Amino acid sequence: MADIDNKDQAEMDPADMEDVEDVEEEEAGEDENSKARQLTVQMMQNPQILAALQERLDGLNGSPSGYMESLPKVVKRRVNALKNLQVKCAHIEAKFYEEVHELERKYAALYQPLFDKRSDIVKAAYEPTEEESEWKTDEEEELTEEMKEKAKLEEEKKDEEKEDPKGIPEFWLTVFKNVDLLSDILQEHDEPILKHLQDIKVKFSDPGQPMSFTLEFHFEANDFFTNTVLTKTYKMRSEPDENDPFSFDGPEIMSCTGCTIDWTKGKNVTLKTIKKKQKHKGRGTVRTVTKTVPNDSFFNFFTPPEVPDNGELDEDSEALLAADFEIGHFIRERIVPRAVLYFTGEAIEDDDDDYDEEGEEADDEEGEEEADEENDPDYDPKV
């Protein structure tokens, strides 16, 4: 059989031999391309490689491209003129955000009476009327009048059997536990304290003062600390950096300050006592030493790392501050305005829907890619 193959090859026209070699080279090239595509997909799914790539791209940001270097001097002058215009745009944008801050302050005053009433209902200082409490759910709309009446009687019977709770118990604790960003820093020993949290308010800086906002956590009297209000203030900047004006993308939090919590003796959940055994080098005797060390707690939120005057922080402090800024911003922008929806879980469902939609779009794109590959006559599913 091998002789026949050799004979066929010997009788084959040299031009045909070239065609065979070309086909083999094309197939080899396709195999290499397919392997390269697979390797690229694997690399892009590796978070460490993506982080390194992002770091490299960040390093390139702002550096001149080879194209810019190749431009004639007269064109570079015009580009520089455009960049100066861009800096002026950044300063106008800063003014825009300052006016937005003024609008936030104005509308915060309009929202506050509603938030105060919400607080009164939560802490049982006000009982809403029947009219204020009426809310139709989708399920209720489908029920007949007879079924509605029956359901109402059953609900009233259940209420009679239970003790009458005051206000809405554990309102803010439930909100915290429903939000991943907050539940991640919430510890079991924090929960009894947060049951006493009655309200969270946002206060904006006064007109003419540097841009900032303060979160106020209002507590009822409790056995853990004597403070009635715990505060966290975030200082913001809304102006382009002189050294890097093109990085301006709206107001950014520059620093934050907490407050001193006046803990009742033995109730400070941000500290814990540990016992360590120490052995004497000479005598060999062992003694037990008691030490007080930091403890994980939500209430560490009120003692953030201090930013030195030069603005330089170690990596751990920088990561802590970044997480702190994110939490403070989320409480201000989402939690306080929509607290009841985070209590019921409806706001969580909305957030999940947003992510699902993105996931569905990604799935659709993958499906389209798979369909394209299947329609490709050169596509080999085994590769």
From TrEMBL:
Places the protein is found: Nucleus
KW Nucleus (keyword) present: yes
Segments of skewed composition (Acidic residues): 11-31, 128-144, 347-383
GO CC term (a single one): nucleus
Chief subcellular location: nucleus
Keywords, in A-Z order: Nucleus
GO BP annotations listed: nucleosome assembly
UniProt xrefs under InterPro entries: NAP-like_sf, NAP_family
Annotated stretches, region: Disordered: 1-38, 126-164, 346-383
Residues annotated as transmembrane: none
Coiled-coil residue windows: none
Stretches with biased composition (Basic and acidic residues): 1-10, 145-164
Family: Belongs to the nucleosome assembly protein (NAP) family.
Signal peptide: none
Protein name in UniProt: Nucleosome assembly protein 1-like 1
